[in-house]
Write a structure and sequence with these properties.
Elements lengths: L9 H51 L10 H15 L2 E5 L5 E4 L10 E7 L5 E7 L7 H44 L14 H36 L3 E6 L4 E4 L1 H7 L10 H5 L2 H13 L3 E6 L7 E10 L5 E10 L1 H36 L6 H32 L8 E4 H18 L3 E4 L6 E4 L1 H17 L6 E8 L3 E8 L21 H6 L6 H11 L3 E7 L3 E9 L3
Parallel strand pairs: 11-13
Antiparallel strand pairs: 1-2, 1-4, 3-4, 5-6, 5-9, 7-8, 8-9, 10-12, 13-14, 14-16, 15-16
Helix pairs in contact: 1-3, 3-4, 8-9, 9-13, 10-11, 11-13
Amino acid sequence: MKKWSFKGPLLFKLTALVLVVTLLSVGVTTFFVARLAQRSLEIKAREQLRADAQLLSLILDEADTDGTQDRQALAERVASLEETTGRTIRVVDASGQVVAGSTPSGFRLDDYFAVFSDLEGGAVLQVLLPKSEVSMSRGIAEGALIITVVVAASSMAVAYVVNRSITIPIYDLLGLVRKMQERKFGRMVLVRSTDEIGQLGRAFNELSEVLDDLFATIRNREGQLDTILSSMDDSVIAVNMRRDIILANRAAADLWDLPENGIGQNIFEATRHEELTRILEKTMDSGETFTNEVRLRPGSERTIAITSSPLQDPRGRIQGAVAVMRDVTSLRHLEQMRQEFVSNVSHELRTPLTSIKGFVETLLNGHLDDKQLLERFLNIIKAETDRMIALINDLLDLSRIEGGKLRFNKAAVDMKKVFDDTVLLLQSKAEDKQITLQNNIYDPIIVEGDEKLLRQVALNLVDNGVKYTPEGGRVWIEAEQGLDSVEFIVADTGVGIASEHLDRIFERFYRVDKGRARQTGGTGLGLAIVKHIIDRHKGTIAIESRVGKGTKIRITLKKMN
């Protein structure tokens, strides 16, 4: 069954209610007043009938109501009295017959007020008055109706004014509440009275001020939190117990390629990463913190460290989980490089030390008198010692360059002269292998840099070209000038480098062919030192090579203004 409800403005409701109550009150009052007036009229009518009956009985007692010769006179007398009094008069004899008076058509005694009076001779006088004549007049009814209308209109006007004084503040409060729903706080309502509604208005004004301050504080904290989260390099994602994302900073959106409307999405649907989803679920189920490292995507080299912690309310109930993620790919790569570095240094030092120890033990076992063998072993020991010294010096140079401890003397450097001196220094070494070594830079080229470090670069690159070029090959230097920089090219027709090695060729101790590198006396640090020196000069270095065809190394340096 549908529940009945009265819809409409409050002012209309209250005014209509007052009108209904007023009409009911006036109607009930009018009804009872009319009843009272009717009864008064009936009582008065009966009293008048009694008085008339007594008077008429005295008059009629003088007539002989039983005499047949006087009945005509009696009838005339009764008719005359009816006309005079306006009453219906009947004389009934002892047998119940009407001997005088009129009987209206359709006569029913119940429709009349009747008073009976005994006459002489056993006759009865009946004085009748129709009940329809004993009622309020039309004028009285119309007056009552007019009074009712006037009272109702006055009540409605008064009710409208009073109700309006009540509903206007309520409408103002309703508007204030709607503004609060729109998060527009600090609005006030006009307080027009000191009664309960006025007190309610003041309370709402105070509430609006408190909420304005509260939400201002919340907005400030949200802004600070957003600023902190946005400026974090670490990715942060929080989920609720339904596994829906409730927070994600910019780093997380970039890391997982989250859509703009990612908030509210399921964590797995948004990231498509089973391991991240599993760690968050495990945290919510157990309420413990977990740490793990995962691959960003299957087959990807990027490593992500995830720390997942539970989100708890003030009562300690788990509401979700938050994951802080950091890309540790570079860190793991550095750790791997450190491990390889320690292993390589240990290996590079152990090999010559083992060789030296073996020769020394051989000599100590009774071969000191063999001068030819002694001289041969001592020369080998000297060569191994020189290789260890070169290795240690390269390590020290690399450490100083990487740590920024190497002094950088910026000046104008003529690279034509640097390469001329390098060619002159390595010319005899090239001639021993019948290698053509040429500097094809014919005019001075002045760059900005540290001459000592740039000479080390030139020597390393040209020396590598001579080392790894077979007999009868060719090594040359050339330059291509730009507007603000110069590209120097050290090229050879050597053995070349396979493409899979080119990305790691500038790493420390990285060798394409370790056996060949040791035979040529290399430490595996030369190109790493070159790259760091070029980086220190804010230049670039690149390598091109084909196996069996040769190698080209390009370095770009800034021209001197």
